[in-house]
Amino acid sequence: MTNEATGGADGAAVLDPIEIRVLAVLAEKEALTPDNYPMSLNAIVNGCNQLSSRDPVMQLTDEVVQDTLQRLIERKLVNGISQAGARVTKYEHRMRIKWTLEQDKVAVLAVLMLRGLQTAGEIRTRTGRLHEFKSVAEVETALQFLIDKYPPLVARLERAPGTKEPRYGHLLGGEITIVAGSEQVNSAAAGMTQGGRIGQLEQEVAALRGELEDLKAQFEAFRQQFQ
Length: 227
Known about the structure:
49% helix, extended, 11% strand, Arc Repressor Mutant, subunit A, 3-stranded antiparallel β-sheet, mainly alpha
């Protein structure tokens, strides 16, 4: 069984999972550690690879995050700041400006980006340090605002069998598809997964070809011993 919701923040700016993670970390740390914001590359990498409050857990390198930041800058979702006398560039997100969002909406979106599909109650619990919602109803109001934007930033999914509350997911990575109650899969993530599998198969084929060439050479050397 599948449950789908379509949309996206911008048809030309569907984000891949790493871009989503980097952007969400910037939004999260802006609220959690304002004294260390804007953030250095090293701090962003640490935030992306954090083991807690992350689904999925990632292991990103400095090079991957640097390339991702550059793409986000080109899309005007991140701003790089080079201060006079500073040794490193620091970065800040521009979601608030890009999509005209107040902090409560940024908090909801960031938690969805960092932790996948969630109910309004789960979002309220997990946004505590980013923005204090007094009730689940306040969370639902913020979610509805994000749903009603054009294009929408969030989708409300139908209740899964055996559950009491609907879940919500962001649409920054494109269409959301739920298969048999599994976690969120969007078009960008699916494309990356498919690309990764193809790349792995290509590597395996190349390795097998190399082994075959080695066997041919060994057989030829063995054959020549009897000529």
